[in-house]
Amino acid sequence: MNSVPSASGPAISLKNVSREYGAIKAVDNVSLEIAAGSFVALVGLSGSGKSTLLKMINRLVDPSAGKVLIAGENVKVADPHVLRRRIGYVFQNIGLFPHMTIARNIAIGLELAGEKNGRRERVMELLELVELPKEMASRMAHQLSGGQQQRVGVARALATRPGLMLMDEPFGALDPVTRDSLAGQYKALHEKLGLTTIIVTHDMAEALYLADRILVMEGGQIKADATPAELLSGGVGDEAEALVAIPRAQAAHLIALSKKT
Amino acid sequence: MSEAWQQAFARVPELLAAHVQLSFSALLFAMALCLPLAIWAARAPKVAAIILGFASLIQTIPALALLALFYPVLLGLSALLGGGISALGFLPALLALTLYALLPILRNAVTGLTGVDPAAKQAADGLGMTATQKLRLVEAPLAAPTIMAGIRTAAVWTIGAATLSTTVGQASLGDLIFAGLQTQNWTLVLTGCFASAGLAITVDLLLGLIERSIRERRKIIAWGATAVIGIGLAIALLPMLGARGDVVVIGAKGFSEQFILARLIGSRLEEAGYEVRYQDGLGSAVVFQAVAADDIDIYVDYSGTIWTNQMKRSDTPPGEKMLDEIEKWSAATYGVTMLGALGFENTYAFAVRPEDAASKQLKTLDDLARVSSDFAFGTDLEFLERPEWVMVQAAYPIRFKEARSFNPTFMYPALSSGEVDVISAFSSDGRIAANGFVVLQDGKGAVPSYEAMLLVAPGRSGDDEFMNAVKPLVGAITVENMREANYKVDREADKQTPRQAARWLDERLKDRKDQ
Known about the structure:
Chain A is built from 9 helices and 10 strands. Chain A has helices at residues 50-57, 80-84, 102-113, 119-129, 146-158, 176-193, 204-210, 228-233, 238-260; strands spanning 12-21, 24-34, 39-44, 65-70, 73-74, 87-91, 164-168, 196-201, 213-218, 221-226. The longest helix of chain A is centred in the last third of the chain and has 23 residues, at 238-260. Chain B folds into 3 domains: 2-241, MetI-like fold; 247-343 and 455-514, Periplasmic binding protein-like II (D-Maltodextrin-Binding Protein, domain 2, 3-Layer(aba) Sandwich), CATH 3.40.190.10; 348-439, Osmoprotection protein (prox), domain 2 (D-Maltodextrin-Binding Protein, domain 2), CATH 3.40.190.120. A 5-stranded mixed beta sheet of chain B has the order 7-6-8-5-9. In chain B, strands 3-10-4 form a 3-stranded antiparallel beta sheet, with helices on both faces. In chain B, helix 16 links the parallel strand 6 and strand 7 (402-405). In chain B, helix 1 (2-43) packs antiparallel against helix 6 and helix 1 (2-43) packs across helix 9. The interface between A and B is medium-sized, with 23 and 20 residues.
């Protein structure tokens, strides 16, 4: 695999970031440092502000106050579209363009960047990277299964070799088997490509499996900031406890079941 | 019969081309206007509400009224800007049809653009597309089938409504329908209907094919259908490219006598080597403006009409004096040449059924006034609005039970069938004598003289060859010959076309000369 880029993802820094919608504070004065190359999961219930926080990094949402830095540079410096071309973005509804072939969907970032050479080779490389057969290149999105479509979504986000990946519940709509295999494969990609990844999920089990650092959000604030091991051992706050309790109870139940048989 | 069909078909290619040019221009104009508006409206719901509301409002105005409204608007605009804007023909037709095409295009474009899958839009933003790129690469292609459906609806509407542009003096397939309706020539009406319906169906099918192939992403078929439309357009536009030689446009109002006289003038000019085109069905008010603006080169009007409508006079001097004054006035005010009277009069004549004339002893308008409260009055479409009607009412105490307006063609049957009891007939109309109707005498001379006369546009007054070609018609037509020629076209059985009647009339003129 000579195609693997050596670029390491950037560090992210949020300084006193808030976002208000009228009287509602979706994100409430959050400050945060994310190290280069880390895999961070933002976990919380619906409406906890995790998705808004993520979108402020690629300016799909602009903060009402505070600032966001990527590799030390304020995201406000560049035009939003220029900023976004350097960041991979994957979200639950995938959003493949139904009127374009899979190949063009994957290469659209290169098209926007005006890169004419080697698009076809790059598409093939990316299809291989997300473990899709090469014949998919000429298909249309509606001919693919949900899991295949999200693999294309990941490939499209990676096409321009971004160092930073923002993923907003990327596997939320997939069946458990597909979800598990795709999550596992993405984790391997993250490590292989040396990315910085921030993933939003409401599934604590997924966060525990994927991330090396978990941030628990509630009411627009970060209530817990811990490694998976620390979370499991407890003592990081009630909000985190409540979320961890679910997979823990499920696991205990499964173990109990297997002992009976 | 076969000659009638041949003559009708012979006019189709030219009118079809004009029809296509007009409808396509209006459609293109509407698209150019609507698509940017729709993009704006799709981003701002308030704007969408206002724009769509306006377009819907326009749609409630009947197409014919919309066309008619542009005449005074453009006339006023032209006066404001010191002239130069033609209030007749292509421009008003184009503007009215464009407004008419707005709603379906706008509505579908807004629906199409706002209906684009939010996920695709979010992906476009997330990938770093600019607003323009998002529109070009994502929103426009995804909204295209819906937008195309709107354009298709607009195209069919526009092609249909374009037939009405005849009334503002723009050539279209409506010329056949209107002329046919006036002369009860159903061959013409059917030819016009089939041609415009055929055009609409063809365009609908082709645009439908494009719409479907965009939806199914079959580019080759979409381009193929587009190419077919393109070729059709090119053929329709071809006559515009060709050197426009010196084509004489002969105007005519909307009744048989005018059609016949226009053909008579036309045949004389063709003999003199001119290429001739006819602009039939112009309204009384519109036609004089048209000749003054050089939109038409020549037409026949009646002294009383110019006297009352254009000069706003209400006195009624003898015919000769009136002609003199009209000649001076039209030359001085508009540069229009009054070349001379043709030799017959076509005045408003109040006609009643012979039974009524006998039983109620009706001879004069005074007699009519006596019984008017029991009588229903049938008129052409404009008489009730004309100053002559005011003048008649001032001279005679006439108060009818009711008044109804008809297309002149249907006015005579309405009298004979008893639907109305008196009509404002035309004295040169052959159907008065043919039906045995009795014309009541205007003893007080309330209605001015209506000598038929030739009016020539300012741009032609210096063309001696032209003048010499039409001059022999001055004083050459008797009212008997005109009546008979009119009747040949208007009668129910053994109908002739205006051209045939004009040929017959021409022979009578030649006979006179030979004698």
